Amino acid sequence: MAFWNVDTLELATFRPGIMSKAEIGDDLIMVCMQIDAGKEDAGHTHPFDQCGIVLEGRIEMFVEQERRVLKASECYFIPAGSHHGWKTFDSTVKILDISSKPPQE
What we know:
Elements: E1 12-15, E2 18-24, E3 28-35, E4 40-44, E5 50-56, E6 58-63, E7 66-71, E8 75-78, E9 84-88, E10 93-100
């Protein structure tokens, strides 16, 4: 699919508390994610760049030692190999996330 409307996009269960829709190309992955309130990713790393924009709600994100609460229209960039994670507060959050596709082995 070449075009999305994030307001009407049908999302499917990805993990408990996270709904998503992904498009996977040769080099990029684009994901719209809706994350329930009170969820957290304590941190992880991966060998590819990642960036995105908050569409709705508020989410606290950290990249290495930097921590920030982001709201709608605010963006993030996570360099490859950086330890990062997030947590949601008292409402659902929707983000549009884009990452490089992991290299094939």
